[in-house]
Design goal:
Number of strands: 7
Largest sheet: 7 strands, mixed
Radius of gyration: 14 Å
Order of helices and strands: EHHEEEHEHEE
Structural class: alpha+beta
Shape: globular
Strand order of the largest sheet: 1-2-3-4-5-7-6
Strand content: 25-35%
């Protein structure tokens, strides 16, 4: 029987989280170059993880995905490529909405699957930026939940 849990992530989990991140990015962020992935990997591992409240979703104690929150905003949400399509992302969103009142997210415009995922959950685009937080030319959509 599958036992799924959502729990806070700690520094000891960072290596597993970055493995999940890279698997997810390679499956969905086809617009990134290899050097971009290496650059973002270091930023996320060494800076971004420490700037958010991290929660991981586990199945039988194996981390399959995670969410990073800052107040009422989703800063990151990644599901391992092998675990996509099982509802884990929705579980993390539902958790974040219930526990933290999350109602906004920023997402790469070129990540069509993620944009569709958030739209399906009731998010709408309210703003667009030509560059991402690292100053790279990857447009970001700011989305919020419709009421």
């Amino acid at each position: 029987m599958k036992e799924i849990s959502i729990e806070p992530a700690a520094k000891k989990d960072y290596q597993q989280l970055i493995t999940v991140w890279e698997s997810s990015v390679r499956a969905t962020h086809h617009f990134l170059s290899e050097s971009d992935i290496i650059t973002y990997r270091a930023l996320i591992l060494n800076e971004y993880f420490d700037q958010v409240q991290l929660y991981c979703i586990k199945e039988n104690q194996e981390i399959l995905g995670f969410i990073g929150l800052n107040n009422e905003s989703i800063q990151m949400l990644f599901i391992h490529a092998d675990a996509r399509g099982k509802g884990l992302g929705k579980m993390l969103i539902d958790f974040a909405k219930k526990e933290y009142g999350v109602n906004t997210v920023d997402v790469n415009e070129q990540n069509i699957q993620a944009v569709g995922f958030y739209e399906k959950l009731g998010f709408i685009t309210v703003e667009r930026s030509e560059i991402d937080a690292a100053g790279k030319p990857y447009p970001i959509l700011s989305m919020e939940l419709k009421n």
